[in-house]
Amino acid sequence: MAVKMIKVHGSGNDFYLLDQTQFQAPLSDADLKQLAINICKRDGAGLYDGADGVLVVDKSEHPQVLGRMRVINADGTEASMCGNGLRTVARYLGTQNSQEDFRVQTMYADLKVQAVADFAAHVPAYSVEISPVTFDAQTLGMHANNDATTIINEKIPALSADLKFSAVAVPNPHLIAFVDHATLVGPELGRIGKWMNDGQNQIFPDGVNVSFVEILGPNAIFVRTFERGVGFTNACGTAMSASSLMYVLLHQESTDFNQEIHVTNPGGMVKTVVHQGADEEYWMELIGNATFVRIVTLPLEDALQGDYSPATATETGEQTAYEDFVTNLAEV
Ligand SMILES: N[C@@H](CCC[C@H](N)C(=O)O)C(=O)O
User: Fold this and answer.
1) Which pTM does this prediction carry?
2) pLDDT tens for residues 160-198?
3) How far is the CA of 10 from the centre of ligand 1 (A)?
4) Active site includes 40?
5) Coarse DSSP helix, strand, coil percentages of the chain, rounded to the nearest 5 percent
6) How many domains does the chain have?
7) What is the residue range of 320's domain?
8) CA of 133 relative to ligand 1 center, distance in Å
9) In a shared domain, residues 119 and 195
10) ipTM, two decimals
């Protein structure tokens, strides 16, 4: 049996999108894990250029919801959410069903998604809801500062003598620090990110996505992320949303709710808007590209065994348009 997958990305955070409805019987969780570990490997060991994870699309279990997304990280672990991935799944389901405004089932919420104006020619863009948000240490799986119930803009002395962190789940867990440029590009993010995701540490035993954020100007931030289950990534959509939330909460002198924030990252840029709902709950809009790079087909047995020699691929041509878009960003 052949498996068809689409190589997709949002801000260079790249995935293989796998539609389970192509199979008579869906792949088991063990097979999905093995597939992700195999095909995501970098440096020529995975399928083509590898990936940060696999986005598993399936039928929704809920009424009025167009489809379901599951997220398998490159190391085979399952994440509760993926902001960049959700934009590409929104495009996939929207195109298939001729709908522009609908909901997608994720692990903890049926999230609103919407097609928006292209970022540039052949750079389609989608807006997706990021929620629910909580600062609760138990939900975050966090044991810091003598088991504090929340950490908001506070030092965690065990992690760093200088940096102040905020811990927030959106709903996947994020640890965020606002830093200067030297720290943003320095080794500290890698040190903390690797340590917090080593499976041995007592602070985040289940791991956490760690981001450093530099404020570039009013409503303009740069976010660099070390992702749980992946490592350094070009961009992490939930991290950029969580960072935008902390920017609004901690930097009211230069921003506020309901304002568009320009978020650049090593792979491109997105826009975010932070909202506070009627019940005081926070939620974010994440707006960015949803690029389809190539369509790949190979026998399922070979994909599961890591033999990619029979794979065939059809390029969409969208990657060139995306690269032009990023080049133009740098020139602005
Ligand atoms: N890249 C994603 C987040 C993927 C999940 C993360 N690695 C986790 O384990 O929480 C995004 O765009 O949000």
Assistant:
1) 0.98
2) 999 999 999 999 999 999 999 999 999 999 999 999 999
3) 12
4) no
5) 25, 40, 40
6) 2
7) 2-128+290-331
8) 15
9) no
10) 0.98
